[in-house]
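Bug report

Summary: structure tokens for DUF1735 domain-containing protein differ between web form and batch submission.
Environment: batch mode, default settings.
Steps: 1) Submit the sequence below via batch. 2) Compare with the web form result.

Sequence submitted:
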Amino acid sequence: MRKYINTLFMGLLIAASITSCSEEQGTNPGEDSRPAVIIYQYAPGEGYNADNDIKLRISANSQTQEAYYLCELTSEKADFIEINGEAAYMDQVTEKGIKLEEISGTSNQDVVVTGLIGDYTITAVAVKGNTKTAFESSFYGIQWDVFGEGTYHSSMFNATFTVEVRKAAHAEWYKLIEPFEEGKDLVIKMNGTNAAIEQQYVFTDSKYGAVYAEGKGVLTDNNINMTLTFTCSAGSFGEKQEILELPTK
């Protein structure tokens, strides 16, 4: 979720001029008469953990003299604003946050924030003199706890093998650690007895390159019975019946 928070520390004359501005101002930082920033989120890239790390691109408009950002738990931000107000929180960002040294005028800066576990809000503040505006973006960092050792039956590979299973702290989600290839996990999201497997890169084929899996399944007894479609740039390997026997607790 993203939203703008705008607070102006300005006199009546300037406030009156703002009232006459178009409602479209602020949707594009390059067209705003006030300092403004936008936060874009991207996967952090190789060497990072996309469950807990996030790449941010912070873009500023021509009116921005400097900018700062602060990443903290959403609950902590809400508590601060409830007591002190949103204007005070923008001061908090500029005083305790990180200054974006590459931001001045129309500009961008990329940063990677790591090790996030829980519900976080990233707030960026654009500054021009006494005028500040803020933009926020949210990120949920998943905590994966070791659940145990499961057994995986794969028709794709015509094999049965053990696999480490981890469980999300916030939901009935399971992560299979490197079931097919080192460094590539498989996440299964449960909703009651229904399983959803969103498209994810699970292994590399020597001929076709990256192979992705997606599909659905159902929990019966202690087994998640899945129908997965494995695809690559050349097409599909077809639907495969895969079974995960969950660890017995």
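Above is the batch result. After comparison, the two runs are identical; trailing whitespace caused the diff. The chain has two domains: 2-141, 144-245. The longest strand covers residues 194-205.
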